[in-house]
């Protein structure tokens, strides 16, 4: 039985009313997330192009939900459980021992995407079946760079595990390499990246940990009621305007990332979503390194990072 | 007419020398972004579509409308001549749609000042990316509607001027006439369709489907970000706000109907508080509401499909309305 059949079988064994899983997008080889009912299990698909993180969708649903989760997806789910946004007993997690996902942008440079009929991993090779023939490439060439540094390819939380457990390792060599640059070089690098940002907020919107109903960059409106005066409304705090330039964008990205300290699950959705290809994971990984090395916190602990700081602090 | 040489690059040099602000695609990493350039070498024309559109030249993401102190001190309307170089037929059509919005009825003086001085130089397409569907809207990707059009056919650079401004501009270049055979080659090129996706728009069905549960289904995976609207060459929504208490600037900034705050009223009521309502609004705005301006506000560039993180596909969504 192949991976997909095992996933379907596992889902059939669950009593969940809703299923969050991947289905194939029309006209393209990638999968997209969908909320399905148990009688739609046959629509499910799974491949190295099932790169999205289903954790955010789970927060939209009530009742018992089954979900297909890769290593990073499960880590995001775990963070959301820790933070009280999801209930473990409501979830049936079909965990995938993940070999990494393919980088869609890299793939689109190798083949015309609408000619791809399927993509699967065979050993170290990605087999791309085309309408006319097939193409094989070393998976290392197209793997999402984020997956190379994955610490938890095997879900840290699951009900059924598909595939043999895989070892990940903690590796900050990429961050260490970047840290060798001088302060000025790093500043110049980031400013040249941030100046491209169009502040569409896709990074924030796809992030499973960015679930605030109101984001720090939006003008505060929580306290608005029909009784609020115009002056009250006009003077509500606004941390950041809508001006888009390298420095304002830097504030947006740095503040956003800081809110992920000890929380970021490392799925890389922010970077995949960015239409301007900002290297957002680099920021998150730097923060991860600080959290690990300076605060001694492990993402896989059962207590949230900030709560732990309260306990161990003076 | 035919130009022996790199017309686009030479055009940029001429425009810069003549004091134009020039917007052209710049290669960043391995993709292209439309931005203002200061030398012809910055531009690169090896693309099907840049990530963003030429909208940024006419309708910048941020713009100062008023500088104020105790009273209005300055209304900075920029009268500098602008050129957009290297646009495709879809983005050229989009400029015409922005014109309808900003110049018909209420005239936007900031937009008007830029538009009056705008020169458009387009490149004809000879192939399509996977999510192109401009032909569905009667756009001929091989024959963009711009002041000047450049077509690279069989290693030759064909240049045509379609307006007075375009004709005046190409007069400075040494162009030679086309031979009879070359004209035939160009015409054949222009009349050949490019294989691409098709969208099936049924306005009557849209009218009837406003309350359909379909929209909730389509929006399931929508993340409510502003990516689709910010990359869209025809989306024109903006917000106006002040920065600075006693002295400051009144700024116009792009806004997106996908953000919940876009429609939040000061009474605290929000007519589109749910993401499916906002998503539905985008599709109705593209294909129904804007018909009062006389056109669909979609040009089939496919950017919103290519980059939607949730995989929402305007062709499938509109073709599948029920």
UniProtKB/TrEMBL annotation, chain A:
4Fe-4S ferredoxin-type domain: from which residue to which, for each copy?
187-208, 255-284
User: InterPro entries from the entry?
Assistant: 4Fe4S_Fe-S-bd, 4Fe4S_Fe_S_CS, FrhB_FdhB_C, Helical_ferredxn
GO MF: iron-sulfur cluster binding; oxidoreductase activity
Top-rank lineage group of the source organism? Archaea
Pfam families membership: Fer4_17, FrhB_FdhB_C
Listed name of the protein: 4Fe-4S ferredoxin-type domain-containing protein
Q: What species is given as this protein's source?
A: Archaeoglobus fulgidus
Automatic annotation (TrEMBL), chain B:
**Molecular functions (GO terms):** iron-sulfur cluster binding; oxidoreductase activity
4Fe-4S ferredoxin-type domain mapped to chain residues:
211-243, 287-320
Quote the Pfam families the UniProt record gives: Fer4_22 (PF17179)
> What is the name listed in the Swiss-Prot or TrEMBL entry for this protein?
(4Fe-4S)-binding protein
Annotated source species = Archaeoglobus fulgidus
The uppermost taxa in this organism's lineage are: Archaea, Methanobacteriati, Methanobacteriota, Archaeoglobi, Archaeoglobales
